[in-house]
Design goal:
Blueprint (H helix, E strand, L loop, with lengths): L1 H6 L14 H20 L13 H14 L6 H11 L6 H9 L19 H20 L1
Helix pairs in contact: 2-3, 2-4, 2-5, 4-5
């Protein structure tokens, strides 16, 4: 359990490792989705250059974990489940806002051609392409 708690803080940045254990991955994803859902519901979504709660970094952590571990995950369902556990109401509009918002600088861990700011939907749509490129690089 202690390992999972320690690992859930990973990745701290684009070059950091992700959780190695399944419990660490589960806690990391749950913590990030909880933060994103709760803070968006409270009206504290990132705006422009302001992101005082590091929500863009949290979103990138979700993407990095799922991509590097090749985990198939329904983000819409994850946000919906997180919303049911929040102490404040999380409307459908807020849930859609989370999914449509920018997850941060995708280009930090994705190909140079990737836009620096993408929507979640665009990131998820590109995941199969990114996976194929990573597999090809590993073979070379």
């Amino acid at each position: 359990m202690a390992t999972a708690i320690e690992e859930h803080y990973r990745p701290r940045g684009a070059d950091d490792s992700i959780p190695a254990s399944l419990p660490g991955i589960a806690v990391a994803l749950a913590d990030r989705l909880d933060s994103l859902t709760g803070l968006f519901a409270a009206g504290l979504a990132p705006t422009g250059a302001r992101d005082p709660f590091a929500l863009r970094r949290a979103a990138m952590g979700v993407i990095q974990i799922l991509m590097e571990r090749d985990i198939r995950f329904d983000l819409r369902e994850g946000v919906r489940q997180a919303a049911t556990l929040e102490p404040i109401p999380v409307s459908e509009t807020v849930q859609t806002q989370i999914l449509d918002s920018s997850p941060g600088e995708c280009a930090a861990s994705w190909p140079k051609k990737a836009s620096a700011l993408m929507s979640w939907k665009r990131c998820w749509a590109l995941m199969p392409i990114i996976r194929r490129r990573r597999v090809a690089r590993r073979k070379n």
